[in-house]
Specification:
The chain is mainly alpha-helical. Helix content is 60%, strand content 5%. It contains ten helices and three strands. A hairpin with a 5-residue loop joins β2 and β3.
Length: 212
């Protein structure tokens, strides 16, 4: 048999998951099921707040890019960290360490405590809450997939940047180039996350470093 017929794309699985969640949510209100049933279908207000807090952190990262991706005269590093930074001349005769891996932290790839950790799952769970005057549910599912792909790629770029000097033909200029490209990817990630907030009618919070 044709493997394309027997296999299911990730997007098709998203749509099936979405329809199931929407059906449960609708049935809960129509037939008066216990609130626990409808609560299982859509995220709580506290869960949705994670999207806002995560976006605020990404804004903070972009607003403080140079400060966060570079530290000067920092000697408290592990052996692994020392291999993943690039030392440049700093003020006062010191040196600065560039560490692109901070980007992964702000995008939710370092800690389960980060508001953006596996956030695409939360986004899909929130699909029944989409404001269809902004976009329809199918477009929202596509938006979530685009966000996930962009965030994954941005995290990969940050990791690649961190090894830019250690690789053959690498050096400070290579890391600087990769780091600047990574910043561009973070900007696009922020824009997609902002669109998700808009689709769910969630307020855009001011830039903040806080996780909660």
């Amino acid at each position: 048999s044709n493997t394309n017929d027997s296999s299911m794309s990730r997007r098709e699985m998203f749509h099936l998951t979405l329809k199931g969640a929407a059906s449960v949510a609708s049935a809960s209100f129509v037939v008066g099921l216990p609130t626990s049933a409808s609560a299982a279908a859509v995220p709580s207000a506290a869960d949705l707040k994670k999207l806002q807090q995560g976006h605020a952190r990404v804004q903070y990262l972009l607003n403080n890019w140079d400060t966060l991706t570079q530290s000067c005269n920092n000697k408290a590093m592990s052996d692994t960290e020392s291999k993943q930074v690039v030392r440049t001349e700093g003020g006062g005769g010191g040196f600065c360490d560039k560490s692109p891996l901070i980007v992964q932290e702000y995008l939710g790839y370092k800690s389960t405590e980060d508001p953006l950790f596996h956030v695409d799952k939360l986004m899909l769970k929130a699909a029944p809450l989409v404001d269809e005057s902004v976009m329809d549910v199918e477009d929202y599912v596509d938006l979530v997939e685009r966000y996930r792909e962009k965030a994954d790629y941005t995290s990969l770029m940050a990791y690649t940047s961190s090894w830019g000097e250690a690789n053959p033909n690498g050096g400070k200029e290579v890391v600087d180039d990769y780091l600047e490209k990574t910043r561009g990817e973070v900007k696009e990630t922020e824009q997609l996350l902002r669109k998700v907030l808009g689709a769910l009618k969630l307020e855009v919070l001011p830039a903040s470093q806080k996780r909660a």
